[in-house]
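ok trying this again, last paste got cut off
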Amino acid sequence: MGSPPVNVVIVLLFAVTALTAVLGLPVAAVVRRAKKRPVPRVWRTGRVLTGLAAAAGLVFVVLFTLVLIGDTSILYGVPTNVQVLLVLPLLVLALTVAAFAVTVRSWRGAGVLARGHQVIVLAGLLALLWFCQHWNLLGWHL
């Protein structure tokens, strides 16, 4: 599980699921509004929390990749920009826990496709959190 190809696949799967949330949720909201379909407030809150967690995760993956590609040396300690960047996985963790709790609470108020998408995005977020925990990126354990 710790080999680089497996980790790349995990991060790419997260990125794809997160992009469906970040790009798809606003489109779905516009379509629902145009068709005047009501959505329970609690379910909408869960979807928004999931979208925010996915967006924060994408920002983390992109910025962390840029830091690793750039001229970063940890020979004399962890650079400040990396320490600041490690706040994002904690934010993703908090948003994912909240989104999971709200999703469980409001499960019956949503359609089958919305529930399936929510489960897929939450699974992608859990994969990212596993990746961060595996590589000691969840907080300041450096």
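PB: full thing came through this time. The first helix runs from residue 4 to 35.
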